[in-house]
Amino acid sequence: MRVLLRLAAVVIGATLVNAQNSTTGNTTDCANYDMDISNSNIDAVLSCIKNNPDPPIPYYLYILRSYQGALAVPSIVTASQIDYEDSAGLLNLTSLDLPDLEQIVATGFFIYGAAKLSELNAPKLRTIRGSLTLNLVGGPAINLSFPSLEVVESGIYLNGTIDRYELRFLQTDTAKRFSIELPALNSTSAVQIFSTGKLDCNAFAASVVNATPAYNAEDGIGSNTSVICNSKKGNVTTFRPSIVASSRGSKMVSNLLLWSVVVGCLSLVA
């Protein structure tokens, strides 16, 4: 009897949730890991994530173009992708807070056309298997702080009014300028920054180039354009030079060393 009552309560609860969502024209299925987020279903989405923060298939968060205002998504630790885009630049998201997110395990983190976004917070984000692509052209001043981000496998691509970079976030700095903070970055395939601001590209490129693969033209490893930075203060295209000899060079050195040993032995015999 107790089991039947519990099952009935679950069914009634699910019916109420779906009924509540259906009044707004949306139905949120917690078994569906592709989460379309709108103002009308955000409470149901957050409830799903809170009750199941680490599902077998990571959540894909797609913020609908119609979303307006601030958005905070706590509890989620792993996502397959986060996506919010509109080529017309008419998106009305003003802030995005992902306080518990630690990794994105599929295609990446994408924001396009968010001309009203003034705050982006992901303090625990460590790994992005895909790319970090943020196009914030025309938007307000913003601090892009990724204090824990270590690996972005498919590259970092940022576009906006970027005036400076920060190796450490200055808590006392209240200036409303667009800045980038990547203090923990140690591995990414490429970094491309296109700024309409006064970013010091020489300093920024020097701060991130060692996180990119070393370039070895002979062995086809890396790229000689792995870091690109364009701004009003100048343009920089650079790469991390290889400090390891190529396989052909290594073989030649090995042969020379072997020949030296042979000659030395013959000299001793003579």
Automatic annotation (TrEMBL):
It comes from the Eukaryota. Keywords: Signal. Residues 1-19 form the signal peptide. This is Uncharacterized protein. It comes from Coleophoma cylindrospora.
